[in-house]
């Protein structure tokens, strides 16, 4: 165990030069790419992009600039490593990114950023201007008989979300200034992921993978909401985040996975405590939690997973409380001639060991991209909330026990449109509206028809 704990934090030091090098390379490449696309061939559109199939060491050699990753098989989808942690989406899911070869290495970069203005109604409604997002520099090469991938994921949210939270009605999870966050969403850590991955082919259809992360995502839950194609245009967190995919940022993660043809089984050990309020540092802790996940990609457009995990003392407010989490999800992706359609269904459940109480969450979301630069999306949620919601962000009183309070619903619809302002960057202006439904017992706190609207500017690689 001591050896494992000494190896995992060292991954951060290993990634530091890779991250710095990637930033410098892409800074120089952007100038070359801009000149290259200043006068595109007559047969190309101004926003034309390469579409690459298969793992990164294959067809993309010698190519640079903006590309869209798609996989031809489940093992290739795994080797692309374009999702959070070791999670999977349908093989046909597109991932726009910038990439360039550098000697034996292939360097990649993708991410997304939102600048949001949110307005909410009702007694607990708030307004705020804030930014959310993440960037993912990645480097990959052949090493011995396998493939080595070094990956970092960084978020500006510690600086762009003031007051350690932004408004989101009926949301719960983590703390701000020592008090439980209610009707708000916490920012992500600066270091969302610092990881090294080694994939070894053990046959034509067999892939063995090893994942180690100082900060990362164990094999628990679906692809986290900031990275799902079906949620790619929605700037807000899901209300069921802490019942589905909140473990996408934990410390000291070790995962081993075995994939064969259409299926993959994974096992993880990790430190189960949620990130603390210091969003600028790298947390650490002993491997006290575990998870396992079965993923099946039965066809190019489909992916399903079931996972279960034990979280030791996930919440700092209740250090003696352990949680058993189960999740299941089904994803569908359909490429279109001038767009893409991605959809996800998720069920997530937390069972607290101390009290035996069970909390469920259900989600359906879909994003349709059409005519190259337009997106419409929707999200429906049905989520259990606890009596912590009644505190309104105030400290927990002595002897406070968290228990089921109510089941709430949220209905979201949005639209945005891309504009080509910066080379290889899709700049969109958009808006979304969320309507909330609560039981009669919460009307005095939220009003009869609480709602929120978000206007935003979005940037991502194109």
Which features characterize this protein?
462 residues, mainly beta, 16-stranded antiparallel beta barrel, 5 helices, disordered N terminus
Explain what the structure shows.
The structure is a single chain. This protein is mostly beta strands and 462 residues long. Helix content is 12%, strand content 52%. The protein has five helices and 21 strands. The chain has helices at residues 2-36, 74-80, 157-160, 241-244, 443-446; strands at residues 50-53, 65-70, 95-102, 105-120, 127-143, 146-154, 166-176, 179-185, 191-203, 206-216, 250-260, 263-271, 289-299, 302-311, 323-336, 339-352, 358-370, 374-386, 404-422, 425-437, 451-461. The strands form two sheets. Strands 4-5-6-9-10-11-12-13-14-15-16-17-18-19-20-21 form a 16-stranded antiparallel beta barrel. A two-stranded antiparallel sheet has the order 7-8. Strand 7 (166-176) and strand 8 form a beta hairpin. It is globular. The protein starts with a helix and ends with a strand. The model is unreliable at 1-54 and 56-63 (pLDDT under 50).
Instruction: Write down the Rg.
Output: 21 Å
* Order of adjacent strands in the largest pleated sheet: 4-5-6-9-10-11-12-13-14-15-16-17-18-19-20-21
Distance between the termini: 43 Å
Question: What structural category characterises the helix and strand content?
Answer: mainly beta
> Can you count the beta strands?
21
In a nutshell, what does this entry contain?
The longest helix has 35 residues. Helices cover 12% and strands 52% of the residues. It is mostly beta strands and 462 residues long.
